[in-house]
Design a protein that fits this description.
The complex is a heterotetramer, with 2 copies of chain A (about 300 residues) and 2 copies of chain B (about 220 residues).
Chain A lengths: L2 H9 L2 H5 L6 H39 L2 E5 L3 H17 L3 E6 L2 H12 L12 E7 L6 H11 L3 E4 L6 H39 L1 H9 L4 H33 L26 H23 L2
Antiparallel strand pairs in A: 1-3, 1-4, 2-3
Chain B lengths: L1 E8 L7 E8 L4 E5 L6 H8 L7 E6 L2 E2 L5 H8 L2 E4 L11 H5 L1 H5 L8 H10 L15 H13 L5 E5 L7 H16 L3 E5 L3 H8 L5 E6 L2 E4 L5
Parallel strand pairs in B: 3-8, 3-9, 6-7, 7-8
Antiparallel strand pairs in B: 1-2, 1-4, 4-5, 9-10
Classes of the chains: A alpha+beta (about 300), B alpha/beta (about 220).
Bound molecules: adenosine-5'-triphosphate (ATP) (2 copies) and magnesium ion (MG) (2 copies).
């Protein structure tokens, strides 16, 4: 396709458009298929974004998941804490390690003993917050080393139970992305088939146009334009309906902060705007291909 | 303008036409006869490039048919007016748009040709049906419309396949007059027809050669025509 | 439709089937549309089941969420505990309330102080596990009553943060079910449109059959059968592909126990089997309707 | 068997046909002529129930057309053999299946009629083309096939619209002979045609009435036919 073809296509030729019958069921089919697909695509996109946010949030909560507890007599506690901190800072896979202050520990225990707990007088262990980096550390190795050098240390990585959550959210996101691709593929296939059905149904139109000396490009263009416009309109309507549908979904309240809403947030609301032009592009290529092939077939 | 040089054609089975040579010169008028199924329509299709000969050579306006690409072929078609045996139209466009279709696809301004168009529709007796859709036409009306569409561009060659099969005697005389008038303007005319009466009438008005397909060959018809 | 029609339809009539042109793009379109829709339907179904399981599990964890903490001198502890239990049992919306034993409390505190904590000697508060019923209780009212009668009681319903999770899972399930319905609707619409396109493209076939004295039922049946079979085959292939796709999804490991896998479990693997017959039924009704309407239109 | 009683018809504009009365009795033979666009095809369609009259009454085999439901209509069609002006076929089935189509849709066993079918195809000169698809046929071959399809069921009435428009003189004589033979068996025959020579030839062999549509009315044609 030359630049001239594209210009001609965009500028349009009212006469050329008229030579193809205006309506018919393949027209409705194209409109509907692109509308339905755009609608589903919006939902899949929303799901993908939401599960992406979920995975991110869960992953970041997982990042500060492990705790090291130093159970030692009061006089050894500081020494062992420092020893543990040294080991932790040397361990690969640990981003940072920090001993909690007395106030922080009191705050953590408050649900159990109330706010006025005399932490100092109790045999409360010293807690160290361990922040993993992306790769993560090897808990078994760390435990081995700690047991040798800091006898009172107990590594508690119970928060690892969140890992499957992150996995699940990630695979949910993958599923949603696969759905978006599937939907785009289904739309392309359906528009190609609808275009082919229209071309087959309009065999007589093509023959007549050939007979009176119309060029292939002229004929193809008349079909391509019609299908592209239909896909654009159909996808536009479907997209708007989809966005409305997503907006009307009950938003998960933020108080949990754990699972975010299924809708779009902020600028991602603009993302569905990409769908109609993409649908039109798919229709353009599909029809162009179908028309050229079919025109080549008919002698 | 159109030249067939020892052309042969076969649809896949046995040969249908063999060793056919034909020259459509400007100002020539040919009739083509032959029994049903002898290959008249096939021969006409070879002449306007809808079929490729299986043997021999066809040249349109001095260009070898084999060497034409599809775009050039489309341009050639604009110089040849064709009336199909089964007249086909764009069923969603009114008759006047259908007759003007060759102007539309070649990008000519229809407004300039409006007078021409209405005069032509008058001549073939379709003025009253200008806004009818093709499926609403009678058999004879379709044939007349097909002829009108074939000549609207004032092409160099006019090829018509049974253009009077469905019209009455009076109307077939009118259509013949139209073809003869175009022939006098220098166009080459080739008409396939079973209608011996029509051919006799034509021979009294114009110098027409009558060809006959017989036994896969093209012959000049006997003196009775 | 009479029983005879159905019998005739199922037994079939090889001659009748031949009068409709065998292929064409509307055929491929029908096959593809039902295949793609069945595929998407399997995914939506899987999502709906998974989020349903998720919502159920989260909801059941929510059920034993609240804790009452009695902070009182050792001598008053038993009295206040009993008083609190009495109040709780009288409170509407609470299914049961139970004081934790010393061992249970020690186990809960073990992560903090190690397993060998002398609970008795410490000022550890008594914990009462409160199980809500379906309706739930009014925390503000309960707190008011407790503060009057059991001064040392502190109601901790922090686990309520899981409520938004359940809401989110429920709305995810709703979204998936809506998607299943949307997909079924889109499939029905597309098959209707494809059937209509086929009927429009075969206008000449219908005219010829009319001319030679074929009854409407004979003509309609030839189309209906073809479309039903195509939808059945297409949906069958799409369903199998969808089930394979779901089976190949990385399953979320069960160790978290929080988010279950996205696939099917146990007998729900049989659920997708419903899709092809349903698709065929949709195609049958859609084509029957389209054929009868179109045959009525053509005089 | 078919009765038109002061029938009028209009496609929406002015009246095309008014006050037409016609009776197709067993063993009768009618020709219908008239200029192109005068309403011949329309009148034939009224006769076989493809159009409802806007005025007057049409009865098929003593049943009022208005009172027939669609299924009864289909059964009536099986008793009337129709040759359309634009012969249409099922393009995906070979010619022999197309000619046998009326047997197929009425549920008759084609094997029983096989001899009948091959004899008929022989007569119309299509035996060699039995396996061809309809789009591969020539114009004349299509017309002959349409006639063969119309008579295969041995219907009580045969209605043909320009059955010889695209065939040569010799073949049109053969087709005429077929129609005359059927007529002698007691079938009613109604043929619309422009071909005056054919009508003259028929009148010498059978007692045929020639009708003419003129000025929206049906008249007996003059003595010249
Ligand atoms: N469906 C229709 N809607 C409107 N007008 C129609 C329709 N069908 C036919 N006509 C018009 O009615 C008139 C008569 O048509 P009809 O086909 O009966 O003519 P005819 O006598 O068979 O002509 P011919 O010899 O050319 O076949 C014509 O002018 C035609 O244009
Ligand atoms: N596409 C095709 N494939 C195979 N055979 C064909 C094809 N088109 C035509 N034929 C056969 O070739 C022969 C010649 O056909 P053609 O249409 O040229 O005949 P014709 O002389 O125009 O006949 P008519 O006077 O009946 O129109 C016929 O027997 C026909 O069946
Ligand atoms: Mg021919
Ligand atoms: Mg007619």
């Amino acid at each position: 396709m030359s630049a001239g073809t594209i210009r001609g296509f965009l500028l349009g030729d009212a006469q050329a458009a008229r030579v193809v019958p205006p309506s018919g069921f393949t027209a409705n089919l194209t409109l509907f298929a692109s509308g339905a697909m755009a609608f589903l695509a919006v939902f899949a996109l929303a799901l993908s974004l939401a599960s992406g946010r979920l995975a991110d949030r869960w992953a970041s909560e997982l990042a500060r998941s492990a705790t090291l507890r130093i159970n030692a007599p009061l006089d050894q506690r500081t020494a062992q804490t420092n020893a543990a901190l040294t080991i932790l800072r040397q361990t690969p896979g640990i981003a940072s390690a920090r001993a909690l202050s007395a106030e922080e520990q009191a705050a953590l225990l408050a649900p159990w003993f109330g706010a006025d707990l005399p932490v100092d007088t109790l045999p409360v262990p010293q807690l160290i917050e361990v922040v993993e980096d992306e790769i993560g550390y090897d808990p078994a190795g760390l435990r081995l080393r700690l047991s040798a050098e800091v006898p009172g240390a107990i590594l508690d990585d119970h928060s690892r139970w969140r890992k499957p959550l992150v996995d699940a959210a990630t695979s949910l996101r993958r599923l949603a992305l696969v759905s978006v691709l599937l939907i785009a593929g289904a739309m392309a296939a359906m528009i190609t088939l609808a275009a082919n059905a229209a071309l087959a149904a309009n065999r007589q139109v093509i023959e007549v146009l050939r007979l009176v000396g119309a060029r292939d490009r002229y004929i193809a263009q008349a079909f391509v334009r019609r299908f592209t416009l239909r896909a654009l309109i159909g996808a536009g309507v479907g997209m708007v309906a989809g966005v409305l549908g997503v907006a009307l979904l009950p938003a998960a309240s933020d108080e949990g902060g754990f699972l975010t809403g299924l809708g779009f947030q902020g600028t991602t609301w603009l993302l569905p705007l990409v769908i109609p032009p993409l649908g039109a592009l798919v229709a353009f290529l599909a029809t162009w291909y179908a028309a050229r092939r079919r025109l080549g077939e008919l002698s | 303008m159109i030249n067939l040089d020892s052309v042969g054609y076969s649809y896949g089975g046995g040969d249908l036409l063999t060793d056919i040579s034909l020259r459509l010169a400007p100002g020539s008028f040919h009739f083509l006869t032959g029994p049903s199924g002898s290959g008249k329509t096939t021969l006409l299709k070879l002449c306007y490039g809808a079929l490729m000969p299986t043997r021999g050579q066809v040249s349109l306006f001095d260009a070898d048919l084999r060497k034409l690409d599809r775009d050039q072929m489309a341009l050639m078609r604009r110089r040849i007016g064709v009336v199909h045996q089964d007249c086909r139209f764009l069923d969603h466009l009114p008759l006047s748009d259908n007759i003007a279709l060759p102007l539309t696809v070649s990008g000519r301004d229809r407004a300039l040709e409006a007078e021409n168009l209405s005069e032509l529709m008058q001549w073939v007796g379709l003025s009253a049906r200008a806004d009818a859709l093709p499926p609403e036409l009678s058999g004879g009306e379709r044939q007349r419309a097909a002829l009108a569409r074939a000549v609207i561009m004032s092409p160099d060659v006019i090829i018509a396949d049974e253009p009077t099969g469905n019209v009455d005697w009076e109307m077939s005389q009118r259509l013949l007059t139209l073809l003869i008038e175009l022939n006098r303007m220098g166009k080459a005319v080739l008409v396939a027809s079973h209608d011996l009466a029509l051919i006799r009438a034509a021979k009294s008005q114009v110098q027409a050669r009558v060809l006959r397909i017989s036994n896969r060959h093209l012959q000049l018809a006997g003196a009775d025509l």
